[in-house]
Amino acid sequence: MTDRDDLRLLIAGGFPLITIESCEEPRIIGLLRTLADGLDVSLARWSVTDGLVTLLGADFFSAEQLRLVDDSAPAANSKRASDPETALRAIRGSRQPGLILLLDFHPFFDNPVHVRLIKEIAQDYEVRHQKLIFVSHALRLPEELKSFAVACDLALPTAIELSRMVAEEAELWAARGGKTKVRAEAAAVSALVNNLGGLSRTDARRLIRNAIRDDGAITRSDVSAVSAARYALLGGDGLLSFEFDTANLDDIGGLHRLKHWLGERHVAFKDSTAIDRPRGLMLLGVQGGGKSLAAKAVAGVWNIPLLRLDFGVLYNKYFGETESNMRKVLASAEVLAPCVLWCDEIEKGIATGDNDNGTSKRVLATLLTWMAENHRPVFVVATANNIADLPPELLRKGRMDEIFFVDLPNAEARKEIFAIHLKRRALAPAHFNLDTLATRSEGFSGAEIEQAVVSARYAAQAREVTVDESLLLAQLAATQPLSSVMAEQVAALRSWASGRTVAAD
Ligand SMILES: Nc1ncnc2c1ncn2[C@@H]1O[C@H](COP(=O)(O)OP(=O)(O)OP(=O)(O)O)[C@@H](O)[C@H]1O
Ligand SMILES: [Mg+2]
To answer: What pLDDT digit, counting tens, does each position of 315-373 carry?
Structure first.
């Protein structure tokens, strides 16, 4: 569906207020002009600089009516009602149905008179059919207006559109400088278009122009410059962090079934034509079992960037921004695709709290709908260790490709984990009896095993000896693993997981 179709539906729909968050104002005005023309409705715009101006159709505001609200109103269609309150009163007083576009109205929402006037216009919608369309780079609608409003997400440019933009910019460059043609390597152009995917039209065009301008050519080096700029655009909002620290399957002890599952899906994930591209998995399990590590390994093994979603930042204190933040995150992830979108400790973000006016439910719905509909190769890895807090819709079959349960490591996995962490600290696993270590670490998580190795090293350093088995065994004996401290919780988690999830090992 194109933007025009989307907007047409919203305009035809029953919501008196439409919000559009976008920096592409000229394009939106153009779209609305075409739509209003086609639907034969009047269109006016308001901005603080120009006031109310009728763009199409019958004049909204009769001279008489404007005189009522604005004594200084000059002739029709010139500057008038640039003050927001005057403008809103004029709209409320007008009988003319139609669309009124309010550009950059966002700073004026903090005035109760404005809010009230907008509400009154919205309440009268059934009678007068005046639809207010707010366009700003960012919009935070006051609570009392939300039930009247619907948000319109404008689609990002498609590959075809981007290719066309490259051609247009190349022609412009040649025409402007009186030059011949832009030198373009075919492979570089298609790589460039791929790298622009997901950016807004304005950003994409700016990057294309920069790429051509420096040397009149589109080459490989432009492609890397464009990806760098894209990362910078992504970094701007601080909601996603780019994790440089990924992992490999060799870094993980146990979890064999999960590793196998990932290996099987590697090709399908990379294949842009695959119908059933893997979309995401959920890792549930005990603390310190290696869930975060496994999430990092997906990115490492598939050799794609890892983006971590910070739910703390997502849920900022401004009510109502959370969903728009989530949409931004998802759009950013699409920009960076192929990538892994890692929602660590997802239960902290979308717990089934009943006292947040349903925000967390809507955020979750946004994520799940996007997962089902998104066509870009973004693989979601969600991790959680508190199932009680998880909303059932997240766990329903078919949402995630699979839900894995990461249990405490069995003896075989514990041996592997000891070997991994000993090796990492330049200690030869062959000098240790891994079977004994595994037996004595029953009930330990991977993190606790690692911790025992680390503590043994400190102890050895203090005594100026090398780490040996007895030191390590002493550390194990001194540790009370979480599984015994929290035996009941672990047991409950296990019994919940059996039958509902697949064992990761
Ligand atoms: N299966 C494992 N193999 C190797 N190392 C492991 C394993 N499990 C845990 N570790 C070690 O413990 C560290 C902490 O584990 P990790 O953060 O992945 O656990 P988690 O399941 O995400 O725990 P939490 O629920 O507390 O977030 C890892 O960085 C790794 O060094
Ligand atoms: Mg973790």
So the answer is: 764 556 778 888 888 887 886 778 899 998 888 776 555 566 777 778 888 898 999 88
Q: How many domains does the chain have?
A: 4
Q: Which of 259, 283, 293, 493 to mutate to test the pocket of ligand 1 (most atoms within 8 A of CB)?
A: 293
Domain that includes residue 311, residue range = 242-406
The reply to whether 440 and 421 lie within a common domain is yes
* 379 and 248 in a common domain: yes
Q: Is 395 found in the same domain as 248?
A: yes
Q: How far is CA 30 from CA 37, 110, 350, in A?
A: 11, 29, 38
Residues 364 and 255 in one domain: yes
Residue 493 placed within a domain: no
Position 79 scores a pLDDT of 47
Q: Residue range 387-415: average pLDDT?
A: 88
Q: Which amino acids bring their CB within 6 angstroms of ligand 1?
A: 252-255, 287-293, 383, 385, 409, 417, 420, 446-447, 450
Closest of 216, 291, 230 to residue 258, by C-alpha: 291
- For the record, the structure tokens of 290 come out as 């290696």
pTM over 0.70: no
Q: Are residues 275 and 424 in the same domain?
A: no
Strand, coil or helix: 114: helix
Q: Measuring from atom 23 of ligand 1, which residue has the nearest CA?
A: 288
Model confidence pLDDT, tens digit, residues 114-140: 999 999 999 999 898 999 999 998 888
Q: How many percent of the chain have pLDDT more than 90?
A: 38
- Range list of H helices, 140-219: 143-146, 159-177, 186-196, 201-213
Q: Best substitution site from 450, 479, 486, 505 to test ligand 1's pocket, by max atoms within 8 Å of Cβ?
A: 450
H or E element that contains 251: none
Q: 175: domain CATH number?
A: 1.10.8
Structure tokens at 351: 């717990």
Same domain, 130 and 260: no
How far is ligand 1, taken at its centre, from the CA of residue 367, in Å?
A: 26
